[in-house]
User: What shape does this take?
Amino acid sequence: MKKIGILGGTFDPPHYGHLLIANEVLSNLNLDEIWFMPNHEPPHKEKSESIKNEDRLRMLELAISGHSSFKIEMIELERSGRSYTVDTMKILNERFKDDQFYFIIGADMIEYLPNWHQIDELVRIVQFVGVERPKYSHETEYPVTYVDVPAFDVSSSMIRERLKTGKTVRYLLPDPVIRYIGEKHLYGT
Assistant: This one.
């Protein structure tokens, strides 16, 4: 049986904060792998006019290259419309019956758990792992395993804004991702 962490997100773009969270959870919970799961259309966010799924996927591949325990799970990109975690986890549990899944969420999502689609069913089929983010509480009535992650206050929206205004993103994104963004003229570069 493998122990697999799932880190979902838009990864628009993937940054060092994502990688830090994944690595800390992998190490602290002795997981076998972390699956980065880019979503097509998250239910809690408005769809942005951002970039194509192919570009987000390629940036994610570049970001995780070289880490043998980091993989990409495409299940949510392959479905159209809004993706609900409960539906995704039902499918993954059916496909990988012998594996145990840990769904990684930031403190912003911990606060939002009461609003998740079919949350009572979801907590029965997956273990939530919470990581702290600055400015958010991690109080919840739902079962969440907590992992301390060094504070790194970065977000994809902040990076997109910096790119749009010509500010540096060095040390916020892996260099191959920065090069890809420049080559493809993404985010107004």
In short: Residues 3-152 form a domain with the Rossmann fold fold (CATH 3.40.50.620). Helices lie at 16-28, 53-64, 85-95, 107-112, 119-125, 156-164, 175-184.
